[in-house]
Amino acid sequence: MIKIAIYGKGGIGKSTTTSNLAAALSEKYKVMQIGCDPKADSTKNLLGGKQIQTVLDKMKEKGEDVTLEDIVYEGYNGILCVEAGGPTPGIGCAGLGIISAFQKLEELDAFEVYKPDIVLYDVLGDVVCGGFAMPIRDGYAEHIFVVTSGEMMAMFAASNIARAVENFKNRGYAKVAGIILNERKVENERELVERFAKESGNEVIQVIRRSDAIQRAEDKGQTVIEDAPESDIAGDYRSLAEKMIKICERTELEKCV
Known about the structure:
The chain has helices at 14-25, 55-62, 68-71, 94-107, 110-114, 134-137, 152-167, 189-199, 212-219, 224-227, 232-256; strands spanning 2-8, 31-36, 73-74, 80-83, 118-124, 143-148, 176-182, 204-208. By secondary structure, it is of the alpha/beta class. The relative contact order is 0.18.
């Protein structure tokens, strides 16, 4: 099982990237996507635009009686969809919500029951506090990829994520495996992000070109892999999927040497 966390600033297209990546990967693998954003909208384009009940909501509703069927939903092409959820706005810590959701999935043996080939964690990266860093710290994710654009705040968040991951390096945790540029048509965008990647000791592994096809697909509650499978932008996501699998497999081999 390959476990991947996708980090990025809120609103940068992180969830769009993750869900399209999941759809592309599902053409060859059994995929589970876990949304780790309090907005709980990571998986909606894999579910026809529907937002599902979150792990935290179900825990509040049913307590210890929560089952996997309550919190794992099957979406496009058999993708298993989970939303961690978050606290009531203004009350509680969203990071602790992620921790509670992960612990519940572990308690219910979700990975052993569903046996996914690939697990994708879609993680908000505006703040990298203990809760949001949990996919890294507690070994849930073995490979970290960061989504950014050339916008200043997006790269600032990406830099914070890279630094947070670097802080864990000596403890044997996952490291940043690559940068994904989700274009916003900023002036000199590719050059800016390439420079940022180099300065942080990483590389841009894929450019996701800006495309109206993404918005058209999302208006239908779909990914472009489902709505426009032959489009150039669908090709970008398939290319990203192939590159990520190769990077993850190479990293696993290096661990064994």
